[in-house]
Design goal:
This protein is mainly alpha-helical and 309 residues long. The chain folds into two domains: 104 residues, Tetratricopeptide repeat domain (Serine Threonine Protein Phosphatase 5, Tetratricopeptide repeat); 121 residues, Serine Threonine Protein Phosphatase 5, Tetratricopeptide repeat (Alpha Horseshoe), CATH 1.25.40.10. It has 14 helices and no strands. α10 runs antiparallel to α11. About 5% of the residues have low confidence.
Amino acid sequence: MKKNTFLLIFMFFLLPAMFAECAETTWDKLNSEFLQYYQQNRYKEAAQTGEMALKLAEEAFGKDNAYVAESLSNLALLYDTQGQYKLAENYYQRALSAMEKSFGVEHIKVAILLNDFGSFYSSKGKTGLAEPLYKRALVIFEKNNNLDTLEGAMLLCNMGEFYKFKSNYKQSLSMFKRGLLAWEKIIGPQSYEAAYTLNNMGLIQVYLSHYKDAELSYKRAIAIWEKVRGKDCPEIAQAANNLGLVYYNQGKYDDAERLFLSSLKMRQKIYGQEHPEVIAVVENLRQLYKRMGKKEELKSMDELMKRNS
């Protein structure tokens, strides 16, 4: 009798643990399937699987835990991608609440979600809602001494883009500079991410009329991209065009012409003749040749523009 009683008590405590372990395994499987469907653009299957994972997490673990928060965050991203913005916003709010209750308001996981939520609002032009989320995320990253991570670097660059959108160029440049330092520490100074950030810095430096700094930023970006992407890639074509504009604004027309022609050649090779990127650099060359008084070159650009229109 005592043996049977002990066995019943043992099973009483063991069964919940077994159920939780089983639920966790099932949730992991559903979550992996969701991510696979999402990456394959199979959004209907992703939504069904994601909602199943969310329902399982809520039933097995309660409404305020990491599993629920991750499921809600995943679904928010999916619904945002599908253009269901109200639903996405609701899921982000619920995910943030669950994450805060599960880990505490100053946990790094909360900061990562705040960055995602801020980016959601920023992409919709809701800067008043985005900025407090970004700032909260930054404070948490700084308190946790966690900015030199992939997530920290992404936050800094997102904030750089955000302040660029708001035309707060000094703040934008400050964030991009901090983002660059983070990328250099995490994955090295010769990385794609470092080059992308340098290109953004160059753009902001042009807005601030810091042409010498912009020239250095673009040159560094081009040199890195040549190593990691090869010489004929869209990123170099863009940076070459941008650097050409820097020289144009400084009155260095020969240098501007060289860069514009290089960008034009790359863009024609990458996109073909009639792509908007090609037309943009042709227009830059037209304006340059007008300024330089090069009538024959201007005529050739006019003819190219006509063929592309």
